[in-house]
TrEMBL record:
Residue ranges constituting the Spore germination GerAC-like C-terminal domain according to the UniProt record: 216-374
PANTHER family the UniProt entry points to: SPORE GERMINATION PROTEIN B3
Keywords linked to the UniProt accession: Germination, Lipoprotein, Membrane, Palmitate, Signal
Gene source species: Cohnella silvisoli
NCBIfam families associated with the record: spore_ger_x_C
The name this protein goes by in its record: Ger(X)C family spore germination protein
Amino acid sequence: MRKLKLIVVGLFASFALSGCWNAKDIQNLAYVTAIGLDYVNGQYITYVQILNFANVGKTENMEIGKIIPIWIGKGEGKTISQSITSIYSTSQMRLFWGHVKAIVCTENILKRGVDEAFDALNRYREIRYNVLIYGTRENLSDIFTQKSIFNLSPLDTIMFTPEQIYLQRSSILPINGNLLAAKLNEPGEPAMLPSLSINKTVWKEDIKNKPMLQINGAYFFTETKMTAWLSEEDLAGARWTQPELKRSLINVPADGTPQASLVLIKPHYKVKLDVRNGEVRYDVHLKISANLDELLKDIPIKSLEEKAEKVVRDQIVSSYVKGLEKKVDVLKLDEILYRDHPKIWHKMHRSQSFTLIRESLRRVDVKINLVNTGKYKARKD
């Protein structure tokens, strides 16, 4: 009798569990993995990238090279919220926003200001604060349909996993939403937003060109509006200001026939300033370690270090000048002034928003220490 009662109770419990009205099976949800924002003719245009996780999940039976379909929804409205909501009417399934990993903004949005985008997206509870943020000049549909090598899903592209590339080739640091918002709201703090492009020339599948995503530069802001774009080449000297830099290659010398290739790691970047008679002068000091990647000419280590120091020094000065042309502080000099002398910073910025001139950068001292020559020894003198 007791066993019969337990069976009856168990049946009632199972019926009760199956009757949860708000329960959703995971296969009946459409998972948004990326959001694209554009602004055209007074209308916000929102793109959503949707993936079927059954196709992109890594399993033992996963077929490498199998083409994985990507669904893209497009909505329009006078506000970002309205443009997103307009997608619901044809989605057929409930959209789930908890797996959004990247947001890509066109230049139209960046020039208009990212504050509206942050306000709309951050109010939605399912979207996290630490999503990656990018700008682009490309068509958002083209960005969202790019697959990775071997036709893997977009979740294996640089848009979602930039740290994988940054470990091997450090240049422009990826940034997430909460850090970008902090930089935009902090006086003196330069915000650098990576720009996504599509490279159609490097990779082929057999004889067919295969386009791949690439970070080709960065956008800079005045308050919350984009004011300038600089290419990756323009920012070659700015990479040494990043303590997160893992490894980055230089040729020695930079121009002409290379004599060696060095991989630079672990930069220690410091800025000292001198304030006199209302003028500020900055001295940049950089210490960085190096590994010898390739030696094309028999050069003593000391001479090799000195030539490498000149290459890095020239890159820093060049990037500084490129930034001046577009009123961008790529070396983070103004931030040092704000941190160390806030009263002077506020006084200087009352009359003009950008205070740096060519003479502001007084010295650039670079010290490179070659710590590893690989399997082969290098000549010390």
